[in-house]
Design goal:
Helices cover 55% and strands 2% of the residues. The protein is mostly helical. Helix 7 crosses helix 21, helix 8 packs antiparallel against helix 16 and helix 29 packs antiparallel against helix 30. The relative contact order is 0.11.
Length: 783
């Protein structure tokens, strides 16, 4: 980390000072104790009551590694470790915590915290997922207040390029009841899933409570296709159908006021009279034969118009398909009780109006909308569980266990290990105005956090009183990101997917602009131009489907595959025409640099990052620099130089292949595909809330034993490998390896052991040392 206080750090200090002035002696900041000291006092008091002693304070070396892993999500680099150990600041631990919280590493690490809670996975598609991911990262980077962050998600409406928070509803698109269950579980710590089908068997919530809560967000629609130009075309051709019918019947001799008969089945009601009332044709002087003949002409014209409309509808579908999941809108509507509702307070299928489960009732007459009222109620400081849940979640993230467990299942029987501490943290969070970084900074600065990890087993359901943090194995992301930091330069700034993500969002916006910002007459002419092409495509596809069916029945694989290729080509050609004619703004070149600037970022070359001035936290690297191969030593003969150069090229080729898919986990497609290192080590699939695992498994062992990780680390072109190769004596190399991987010096016995291995196997021994350390608990656990 860079020395000195960052701009964000100065702002943080000013903000905390302002809190003290604003809240005065009644504030949790008042008195002689700082918030961190007050937390330590509350923890210590409870330890005394339980007859327990706090764990010993950790050394600077242990603290350094722990802080980097817990806050930044990776181990420190050798340079970062050296800067910390040689620092002469009296409060260097506090400085490190502040610097880490204001670094890109914090954003990368805490992104996983939120992505696991919000289940950001493949259920979100393309640009929609990108917009949501970037929104979460921006919220972390700008330190958006927690209550504001939640309000923006729960009340999210609009287009994805204007409001990435809409991803919150796209994640559960088509499942409004599930979305409500997840919302209440994540933000209010209450499990309502059981109450969807019946009264909760182990809690006080009823099925009616469930549906009343669901009514607030039930109308949040992710299937909004009511775009203005599209609607105008539909209305235009509906009117055209009516006009075609009327024109046809008038030409066939119909008088003014002739009825609009939609189909043959509707004719009889005009021919048959009712009791004491003549039929319509008798009233208007038509014979049955005349009436049928005129109607036949009208229906024929109507059917012809509808065929044309069908072709236009297909064209509109093709044009608007890319915008399928790009808009969220609130349509206030009430859910209905299920058909098997069994309680006496309502009938099955009854509509349910919104009402909250607890806390202050909402007067919807005083609010702009249901969803706005719902989000304000949920994030209010007066909400009984909103603040309690987030401070407990963040406490667990820092210390490994919540003050109450489970963190998302508060009931009347929930046992809190330290009620006074929990109450203090709630008040603290409110006075911090829900500043997440502010609370984390206080927690990381406690003596409680800076004590030795607790290595004893904690029985399920038993309270823990926080003698120190829980000993935890690194998460999958922490292991991976530590390896990436050892392999790549400036790993925290490297965001290889960012330009692609921004471009995909911009392309969606440009498609919308191409369609919806055209004058209607121009838009209609474009649709009419494309309609024959789309109609022909559907005809050809139908023919190909028949041929494919025949080829499959004949088990002619070669013909089947050829037909599929031809069919794809037909689709590609039509899609190109649609893009060319329909999406006119896609022709404009997307400048990725402009897109970065639009979100307040600038791009720099990776080799320049080390020389960047303070205050350039927004700079990113989207492409790793090319590495210049070194010149051969002067004392080699010609053939030796050639062999040396070939060996360098071979090593570089291996390095490029190894790192081609490397970046911090937050910058990869997430969650990773099955079989990837991250998934083998327990990365959440994000199908359900907080689904990550940290237990050992056979795939993990095989990955470390036989995978390419050691090669990636020790390759001479990797950051770590280069340092090891450049070190002079065997002792220097050994020290370099231990400092980089374990953030400490090797012991005398470890130096002797490595020296013995080097004596036996030469330089190959260092690869074995790296492999051995990679498999140790010292490397894999946050101590």
């Amino acid at each position: 980390m860079k020395a000195g206080i960052s701009q964000n750090g100065v702002l943080s200090m000013i903000k905390q000072f302002t809190f003290v002035l604003a809240f005065g002696i009644g504030s949790v900041f008042a008195g002689n104790l700082s918030p961190s000291d007050q937390i330590d006092k509350l923890v210590g008091t409870q330890l005394q009551k339980q007859g327990l002693a706090p764990n010993a304070e950790i050394s600077d070396a242990v603290f350094l590694r722990r802080a980097y892993l817990n806050i930044g999500g990776r181990i420190p680099t050798i340079e970062e470790a050296e800067a910390f150990h040689t620092s002469e600041y009296p409060n260097k631990r506090e400085r490190l915590i502040e610097d880490l919280l204001n670094s890109p590493a914090y954003v990368s690490n805490y992104y996983h915290f939120w992505a696991d809670l919000l289940r950001v996975n493949g259920e979100l598609r393309g640009a929609t997922k990108s917009a949501y991911e970037l929104w979460v990262k921006e919220a972390l980077q700008t330190n958006k207040p927690y209550d504001q962050m939640v309000r923006e998600m729960v009340s999210a409406e609009g287009m994805i390029w204007d409001n990435g928070a809409t991803g919150y509803y796209f994640r559960d698109r088509g499942m409004p009841l599930d979305n409500m269950s997840n919302t209440v579980r994540i933000f209010l710590g209450t499990r309502l899933e059981c109450a969807q089908c019946h009264n909760h068997p182990f809690d006080k919530w009823t099925q009616m409570d469930y549906f009343k809560m669901a009514a607030f967000s039930y109308g949040m629609s992710t299937r909004n296709y009511d775009f203005p130009n599209r609607d105008l075309v539909t209305k235009h051709y509906s009117k055209a159908s009516v006009d075609a019918y009327q024109d046809a019947v008038q030409k066939a001799g119909a008088k003014e006021g002739f009825p609009h008969v939609r189909n043959e089945q509707s004719i009889d009601r005009y021919l048959l009279g009712r009791k004491n009332r003549p039929s319509w044709i008798e009233q208007h002087g038509y014979s049955e034969q005349q009436f049928r003949a005129i109607v036949a002409k009208g229906i024929a014209a109507l059917e012809a118009s509808k065929k044309e409309q069908n072709s236009l509808r297909q064209t509109l579908s093709q044009l608007y398909n890319p915008l399928q999941y790009t808009s969220v809108r609130e349509d206030e509507k009430d859910p209905k009780l299920p058909h098997d509702y069994q309680y006496t307070d309502a009938d099955p299928h009854a509509q349910v109006s919104p009402a909250v489960m607890f806390g202050t009732e909402i007067d919807l007459d005083q609010e702009d909308s249901r969803i706005a009222a719902y989000s304000k109620w949920m994030t209010s400081p007066e909400n009984p569980t909103f603040t309690k849940v987030i401070v407990n979640r963040l406490w667990k993230e820092v210390f490994g266990l919540g003050i109450f467990e489970p963190v998302d299942e508060i009931t009347d029987h929930t046992e809190v290990s330290n009620p006074e501490l929990l109450s203090y943290l709630e008040n603290l969070m409110r006075e911090l105005d829900y500043d997440i970084k502010g609370l984390l900074q206080i927690l990381y600065n406690t003596e409680t956090y800076q004590r030795a990890a607790n290595t004893g087993e904690i029985m399920l359901g038993a309270p823990y009183y926080f003698q120190g943090p829980i000993l935890r194995r690194m998460s999958a992301e922490q292991i991976w990101d530590s390896i990436v930091a050892l392999s790549l330069p400036e790993a925290d700034q490297y965001r290889p997917r960012l330009k692609g993500q921004l471009s995909s969002i911009e392309n969606q916006r440009r498609i919308y602009t191409s369609l919806e910002e055209r004058p209607f007459e121009e838009f209609l002419a474009m649709v009419q131009e494309l309609a024959p092409l789309v109609k022909n495509r559907y005809v050809i596809e139908a023919e190909y489907r028949d041929k494919l069916t025949e080829a499959r029945a004949a088990e002619d694989t070669e013909l089947f595959n050829q037909l599929r290729r031809e069919l794809r080509e037909v689709g590609r050609e039509v899609q190109e025409k649609i893009s060319q004619i329909g999406y006119i703004h896609l022709r404009e070149e997307v400048d990725a640099g402009d897109l970065l600037a639009a979100i307040g970022m600038n791009e720099v070359a990776a080799e320049m990052m080390a020389d960047m001035e303070e205050g350039s936290e927004d700079a990113v690297v989207t492409k790793l620099p090319k590495i210049s191969l070194p010149n051969p030593p002067e004392d080699l003969e010609r053939n030796q130089k050639k062999a040396w150069a070939n060996a360098q090229k071979a090593d570089y080729s291996v390095y490029k292949n190894l790192i081609s898919g490397m970046a911090r986990a937050s910058e990869l497609e997430s969650p990773a595909r099955r079989g990837h290192f991250l998934r083998d080590f327990g990365q959440s699939d994000r199908e359900v809330i907080e689904n990550a695992a940290d237990h050992a498994s056979v795939p993990q062992a095989l990955n470390l034993l036989n995978g390419p990780i050691v090669q990636a680390l020790t390759n001479r072109f990797a950051v770590f490998g280069n340092r090891v190769h450049a070190a002079g004596t065997p002792e220097d190399k050994t020290r370099m390896i231990f400092q980089a991987m374990l953030t400490r010096e090797p012991t005398d016995s470890e130096l002797a052991m490595v020296s013995e291995e080097v004596g036996k196997y030469g330089d190959e021994a260092y690869e074995g040392v790296v492999w051995a350390l990679l498999n140790t608990q010292q490397f894999l656990f946050v101590q």
